[in-house]
Amino acid sequence: MKSKIDTEYFEKRKFTLGCNRLSGTFKSVWIKQKGSCIHCGMPLEINGDRELIFKTPLDEGGKRTITNMTYGHKHCNNKFNRNRPKGI
Length: 88
What we know:
Elements: H1 4-21, H2 24-32, E1 50-54, E2 69-73, H3 74-83
Antiparallel strand pairs: 1-2
């Protein structure tokens, strides 16, 4: 059984690894989200199954800005898109 201290240590470690491996805008997005999935809130793995998501897609006029970019688990994003009402 994991203790709260173990969980906090590994979550902080994942966040720090992300900070060390990313740079520029991508690092700023990681820090803004505290290394967590935008959909489920669970920690992301820097080498894991994560996606960079544009809140307003680039082909719909979205910009490559920190406020328009976010990270999510690939499976969470797929689930979100399947359940998303059409036209949004």
